[in-house]
Write a structure and sequence with these properties.
It contains 6 helices and 5 strands. With 147 residues, it is an alpha+beta fold. Strand 1 and strand 2 form a beta hairpin. The protein starts with a helix and ends with a helix. The structure holds zinc ion (3 copies). One zinc ion binds next to loops.
Length: 147
């Protein structure tokens, strides 16, 4: 683990404290595991990573902590496709574009959807929340190889 990751870990834990959450060993381990991973992992993958570092943390504890962290809005889940939900940290807000061909996940800033959000609200009185599900499509490479 490099220094930038350590700094981000402390920042996320500070965010957790500010929102009234306690920093427990298990919660710290979950945040560290999310930072270590690609950033988008299932609850099972997260459990495996946490338990590799802390074998005494029970999986029910991890699931409970994950729920608590989600309620405190430190962690969020997103559906990238047909599979199970994946978890990521909320300190660097982003939306997801997922390639249906190769599974590539492209993270894009929230602002990317600002114009669409405003337009849909004006025309249909509907406020979209694109962060819960990814927008599916094709990456450049897959678009080039498909007819
Ligand atoms: Zn969901
Ligand atoms: Zn994400
Ligand atoms: Zn692709």
């Amino acid at each position: 683990l490099g220094r930038p990751t350590d700094e981000r870990l402390e920042r996320v834990l500070e965010m957790l404290r500010q929102r009234g959450g306690r920093v427990t060993t298990a919660r710290r381990a979950i945040v560290a595991a999310l930072l270590q991973s690609s950033g988008h992992v299932t609850a099972d993958e997260l459990t495996a990573t946490v338990q590799a570092a802390q074998p005494d943390v029970h999986s029910t504890t991890i699931y409970r902590c994950l729920e608590a962290l989600e309620e405190l809005d430190v962690v969020d889940h997103v559906h990238l496709g047909h599979g199970r939900a994946v978890y990521h940290l909320t300190d660097q807000p982003h939306q997801h574009l997922v390639c249906e061909g190769c599974g590539l996940v492209v993270e894009v800033p929230d602002e990317q959807f600002a114009a669409l959000r405003a337009d849909l609200r004006d025309r249909y009185a509907f406020t979209i929340r694109p962060n819960h599900f990814a927008v599916l499509g094709r990456c450049e490479r897959c678009a080039a190889t498909s007819r």
